[in-house]
# Entry
Amino acid sequence: MQALDQLNKKLDMLLKKYAALEAENKRLKDSLAAQNKTVEALSKKLSSLEHGMVSVHLGKTVDNDDEKDNMRRQLDTVIAEIDKILNTLND
# Structure
């Protein structure tokens, strides 16, 4: 009988661990879903901003090559920062 009691205790312990792991799994899935929604929203915002930048760029022509290079560097910096943010959110 003592062996049966030990098995029952072990089974109860395993069932509790299983329930805890299931709860953690659900929490992690919910967190992942929320992060995916955030990433999707940020991607849409990025796309919108890129379209706006193109519109501004097309509306305003730059005569000087130095100004063009400066604008390119600034855009590259902004895009790199946005990529870092998106990568952080994905992790």
Notes: Residues 2-90 form one domain. The radius of gyration is 27 Å. The chain has two helices and no strands. The chain has one domain: 2-90.
